[in-house]
Specification:
CATH architecture of the largest domain: 3-Layer(aba) Sandwich
Number of helices: 9
Distance between the termini: 47 Å
CATH topology of the largest domain: Rossmann fold
Radius of gyration: 21 Å
Shape: elongated
GO biological process, one term: DNA replication initiation
Number of strands: 5
Protein name: DnaA protein
Strand content: 5-15%
Pfam families: Hda_lid
GO molecular function: DNA replication origin binding
Number of domains: 2
Organism: Rhodospira trueperi
CATH superfamily of the largest domain: P-loop containing nucleotide triphosphate hydrolases
Structural class: alpha/beta
Helix content: 40-55%
């Protein structure tokens, strides 16, 4: 007897799991547009016709901020700095003469020490004075960042914000397919629908379980089925219960 939760093939011999590198597809055509991110995509697509020199792109981890940052960098010839400190930012300013630039401030609330605040304030001013463009990516809007420099705080509060929100079920399915495609793995529509319906509605949860499921299938020498998908989801939930995220 067969059913939706039965593996399509009997388990084969156990095989070694090799950590092959994956290449995320970061071209504009590869970005999955949906209601939760359409406004942010429109902001990137309309460059350089922005209402000001700088834009903040915000959203939860894994939502596509880095993807859109690379889209803008390819189009504008922008330099991308990943979680820069003040020294790296000052060096980039000297080298690029305030050309198009992307600052990726990482997951969670940005940590801006006094030196980095001064450097960021200087960058915002020079960008405006020279007609350059600056994209800031972060999890939270700039108006919420813990900034002690009053002039910088006012500049950040005035920035236009492009926000990406949590995905709906349709986008969840699209993300599952894309993340497996990045790994050169094909999965059935039934598995895709199962994952989209049973995962937490967040980009990070999809990324985590796809990685787990790929490793699990390799280590067990089994196809990716709903049975294996349930195992990966349960393992992820067990870890969250055992090691809850720190607030």
């Amino acid at each position: 007897m067969s059913g939706p939760d039965r593996d399509e093939a009997a388990p084969g011999p156990r095989q070694m799991a090799f950590a092959f590198p994956t290449r995320p597809a970061l071209d504009r055509a590869d970005f999955l547009v949906a209601p939760c991110n359409a406004a942010a995509v429109a902001w990137i697509d309309r460059w350089p016709d922005w209402p000001g020199p700088a834009l903040a792109l915000v959203g939860p981890a894994g939502c596509g901020k880095t993807h859109l940052a690379h889209v803008l960098a390819a189009r504008a010839g922008a330099v991308i700095l990943d979680r820069p400190d003040a020294a790296r930012l000052d060096e980039a300013l000297v080298e690029e003469r305030v050309g198009p630039m992307v600052l990726e401030l990482g997951p969670g609330m940005p940590i801006l020490d006094a030196a980095l605040q001064e450097a960021l304030f200087h960058l915002l001013n020079l960008t405006a004075e020279t007609g350059g463009h600056l994209l800031l990516t972060a999890a939270e809007p700039p108006a919420r960042w813990p900034v002690s420099l009053p002039d910088l705080r006012s500049r950040l509060a005035a920035l236009p914000v492009a926000e990406i929100t949590h995905p709906d079920e349709t986008l969840m399915q699209m993300i599952v397919v894309k993340l497996f495609a990045d790994r050169q793995v094909s999965v059935s529509p039934e598995v895709v629908r199962y994952l989209a319906r049973h995962l937490e509605r967040s980009f990070g949860a999809v990324r985590d379980v796809v990685e787990r499921l790929d490793r699990l299938a390799l280590s067990k020498g089994r196809p990716i089925t709903q049975v294996l998908a349930r195992e990966a989801i349960n393992a992820a939930r067990s870890e969250q219960i055992r090691d809850p995220p720190v607030e």
